[in-house]
Amino acid sequence: MTDLSWLSRTELLIGPAKLESLQKAHVLVVGMGGVGSFAAEFICRAGVGEMTIVDGDVVEPSNRNRQLPALATTHGQSKADIMGERLLAINPGLKLHVRHEFITPDTAPEILNTPYDYVVDAIDSLKPKITLIQAAKRRKMKIVSSMGAGGKLDPTQIKVVDISKTYHCPFAQFIRIRLRKMGIRSGLKTVFSPEAVIKESLMMSEGNPYKKSAYGTISYLPAAFGGVCASVVIRALMQEQALGSKKP
After folding, report:
1. How confident is residue 203, by pLDDT bands cut at 50, 70 and 90?
2. Handedness of CA 191, 71, 128, 55 (dihedral sign)
């Protein structure tokens, strides 16, 4: 029998019924970078019983200022593998699926064939992000999508809104434009910050066909975005249990 004593403080806060609902849930987190790695860890530590994590990238030195898998000793290693080991070290009873791949028009439909209870989109490249969102919306899956965490410093400005309500976020603007071309104007829950971007921190990217530019980042901002994404998922899963318990 699985030892859940490590979740005693969580159970004290939310009660055994909601904890059980988390244990029965399956959450997909795509992207193990600054936002996604923290989102995945927070979801795991909350007691979600099954997770799938997806990332085809390896650790680079510049990742160390903000990403959980990035250490001086892990350069060149798979982010998905490092995070998989970390999540299982937190909860050895976690039913974990690790996928070493990038989201493409070919891989997204296959990955989303599983009936996840919630999807976390922590992709920071435009085309793969749009691909995942479109595939999830077609399947009517519950999804929360992180917008741009780069070029910003104030975590107290982070908000959770529909994509149609985002503003002062260049990344969200690009997403809105692309989604509108697909007939999607609303119905996507996003985590974003209206804080003005520090434009001087912009740099052009090389060697990545999906990401032509990037803003500078600070250690805590992507983690804060990840925490908010995780909270959206966890609170939704608990709310579903609460609503379900009232049914005859």
Report:
1. confident
2. negative
pLDDT at 204: 73
- Indicate left, alpha or beta for 99 from its phi (over 0: left) and psi (-120 to 50: alpha): beta
Among 44-48, 103-107, 200-204, top mean pLDDT goes to 44-48
CA angle 162, 184, 117 (to 5 degrees): 65
Structure tokens belonging to residue 227: 């925490």
On the question of pLDDT at 246 being above 90, the answer is no
Rg (the chain; Cα; Å): 18
Closest by CA position to 68, among listed 27, 122, 145, 107: 122
| Domain residue extents for the chain | 14-148+218-245
Q: Is the per-residue pLDDT at 205 higher than 90?
A: no
Average pLDDT in the 148-162 region?
Answer: 97
One of 1.10.357.120, 3.40.50.720, 3.40.50.1360, 3.50.30.10 is the CATH number of 14-148+218-245, namely 3.40.50.720
CA distances from 140 to 16, 30, 172 (A): 29, 17, 21
Give the residues across from 192 on adjacent strands: 159
Residue 138 exposure: Cα atoms within 13 Å on the Cβ side: 13
Q: Are 18 and 241 in contact (CB under 8 A)?
A: yes
